[in-house]
């Protein structure tokens, strides 16, 4: 594996996911993860030939936000509520206009048929243009210095703007909509991984957006999934989903991917 073509893939390194005051959806350990990642970028410098990063970006009105759902008594659905298609059919929850019952039912059924996630109501987060949607400051500074040092620009992917499907993965939405190109496979992003050396992965959260993105990427890479290197101390899971994150890492290792600390990854980059 030619480490001289190393590609760093950073998933959703945003304030709203950091354990900081004012964060909408803090992940325990995320701030330390991203500060560690910033130090990794500064140390690796030009050894990182490419950097790609994703930004979760929503409007307040979103199928995964509380404003789109009510309980049977008319009260709002609380954050961290899971909703199944059966809940809709049996009247325990109902969608709020403009999310129609037909669209909501079709979405929940398609999501469950995919077998990856149960629909979750999250706190309103990563609203376009907000502080929470921005890249965490220490990492943003390290990326700016890398750009100045190398003359390269990080490739940014905005995901999650379509309000009627969850978009954990940077590759495609959980339930793609043929009429909404932003939900379909991101061919420009996938093309970035062709011909690179190791693909170093970091970001938040390892139980959701990192997991979803890298599962899709590994399926695209096929046997080349062995190029994946998970920086395990630069990602953390959402509380209560630690087992999902651990299963994800074990599955990637079964495909030939490596799971390394940031320090061990620096040693890997120094091998060339």
Q: Helix count, per DSSP?
A: 8
- Low-confidence parts, pLDDT < 50 over ≥5 residues? none
Strand content: 15-25%
Major sheet characteristics: 6 strands, parallel
Radius of gyration: 19 Å
Strand order of the largest sheet: 7-2-1-8-9-10
Q: Please report the distance between the alpha carbons of the first and last residues.
A: 9 Å
The topology string of helices and strands comes to EHEEEHEHEHEHEHEHEH
Q: Which class best fits the helix and strand makeup? A: alpha/beta
How many strand units?
A: 10
> What overall form do the CA principal axes indicate?
globular
In short:
The protein is 32% helix and 18% strand.
List keywords for this structure.
single chain; about 270 residues; alpha/beta; two-stranded antiparallel ribbon; globular
Q: What's the SSE blueprint?
A:
Blueprint: E1 6-11, H1 30-44, E2 48-56, E3 69-71, E4 82-83, H2 85-89, E5 93-95, H3 101-114, E6 119-120, H4 137-150, E7 155-159, H5 187-192, E8 199-204, H6 209-221, E9 228-236, H7 242-254, E10 258-260, H8 262-269
Parallel strand pairs: 1-2, 1-8, 2-7, 8-9, 9-10
Antiparallel strand pairs: 3-5, 4-6
Helix pairs in contact: 1-4, 1-8
General description of the model:
- There is one protein chain.
- The protein is α/β, with parallel strands linked by helices and 272 residues long.
- It is 32% helix and 18% strand.
- The protein is built from eight helices and ten strands.
- It has helices spanning 30-44, 85-89, 101-114, 137-150, 187-192, 209-221, 242-254, 262-269; strands at 6-11, 48-56, 69-71, 82-83, 93-95, 119-120, 155-159, 199-204, 228-236, 258-260.
- The strands form three sheets. The chain has a six-stranded parallel beta sheet with strand order 7-2-1-8-9-10, with helices on both faces. The protein has a two-stranded antiparallel ribbon with strand order 3-5. It has a two-stranded antiparallel ribbon with strand order 4-6.
- Strand 9 (228-236), helix 7 (242-254) and strand 10 (258-260) form a beta-alpha-beta unit.
- Helix 1 (30-44) packs parallel to helix 4 and helix 1 (30-44) runs parallel beside helix 8.
- It is globular, with a radius of gyration of 19 Å.
- The model has no long low-confidence stretch (mean pLDDT 96).
């Amino acid at each position: 594996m030619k480490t001289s073509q190393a590609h760093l893939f950073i998933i959703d390194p945003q304030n709203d996911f950091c354990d900081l005051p004012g964060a909408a959806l803090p992940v325990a350990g995320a701030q330390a993860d991203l500060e560690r990642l910033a130090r990794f970028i500064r140390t690796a410098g030009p050894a990182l030939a490419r950097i790609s990063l994703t930004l979760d970006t929503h409007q307040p009105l979103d199928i995964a936000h509380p404003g789109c759902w009510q309980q049977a008594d008319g009260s709002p659905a609380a954050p961290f509520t899971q909703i199944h298609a059966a809940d809709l059919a049996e009247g325990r929850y109902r969608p709020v206009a403009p999310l129609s019952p037909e669209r909501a039912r079709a979405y929940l059924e398609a999501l469950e048929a995919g077998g990856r996630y149960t629909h979750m109501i999250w706190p309103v987060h990563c609203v376009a243009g907000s502080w929470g949607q921005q890249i965490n400051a220490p990492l943003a500074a390290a990326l700016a210095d890398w750009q100045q040092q190398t003359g390269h620009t990080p490739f940014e992917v905005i995901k999650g703007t379509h309000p009627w499907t969850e978009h954990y993965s940077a590759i495609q939405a959980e339930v793609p909509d043929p009429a909404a190109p932003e939900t379909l496979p991101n061919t420009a992003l996938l093309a970035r991984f062709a011909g690179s050396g190791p693909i170093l992965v970091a970001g938040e959260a390892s139980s959701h957006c990192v997991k979803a993105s890298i599962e899709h990427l590994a399926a695209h890479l096929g046997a080349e999934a062995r190029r994946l290197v998970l920086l395990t101390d630069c990602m953390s899971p959402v509380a209560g989903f630690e087992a999902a994150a651990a299963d994800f890492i074990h599955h990637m290792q079964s495909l030939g991917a490596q799971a390394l600390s940031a320090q061990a990854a620096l040693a890997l980059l120094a091998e060339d």
